[in-house]
Amino acid sequence: MAGAVVLATVLLVAGCSDRPERPQPTPTSGRPGADLHGKRVADVRTCKNQSHLSYAPGDPVPDSVRLPSPLTLPRGAAVAGLRAGRGNAVHYILGADTGTCHFVLGASSIHISLGPTDGRSGVRDVFSPGGSAYAARYGCEYLPEVARLSPGGDCTKPPGHEVTPLSTGVRDLHASLVWTQPNTRSDVWGGVPPRYGTFALFVSDMAQGPAGRSISCSLPDRQGDICTASLSYFLAQVGESSGMTEGDRRRLTQVIQTFITQHQA
Fold this sequence. Notes:
The longest helix is centred in the last third of the chain and has 17 residues, at about 225-240. About 15% of the residues lie in helices and about 25% in strands. Helix 3 (about 225-240) runs antiparallel to helix 4 (about 245-260). Strand 9 (about 160-165) and strand 10 (about 175-180) form a beta hairpin. By secondary structure, the protein is α+β, with helices and mostly antiparallel strands. It is globular.
């Protein structure tokens, strides 16, 4: 299907060797093993390159990051970061602290995962879906504004996918929430079917191309607050470069929380 999420191996910059994973930082509270849940500041793990291809590493990621208001770190959550190239901004991903963070690179895309190695749960972040043509139509099944710009493409919403468009408050920044049942083989997750229901957020910034991105969270219902924080943090990072206000960020966090709560058993 055109525009489907394909979690494939990709290449960013060839010719440089992969750097070793940095040791985990001491918790920001200064107390080893401190519980940071409910705090605005989170320790940052380093994502490891899982590609067979090498890439040019960027500057080290910070040891800690302050989450944007109104987010705090849920119990059992962790934050990881990736800087794709020297001088570039760090992209953060929030998920359950029982998983590991890795990324897969290809010709023009970056996929980041934070979760168990079996690939059936956790958080998956399509930081860059592919080349400009693919990114332009990415998510057209879930974003009506993108579908209108993709004549002739297959932008039909897949069966069993519930879609709720969002009003971001930012002109030319479009977003939709998507939900699928547990054990559903879907382009929203990719690979093996996830064992839990999947919540996804697709966005497209029309001012930049358009340029599509997405994040998907598949965790037990008891960790719904982690999915809420994960999708909200992703949207806050996208919105930061688009001029999203704090008021809209708070409003959308509440909308995301309500959407997730409504689909829990």
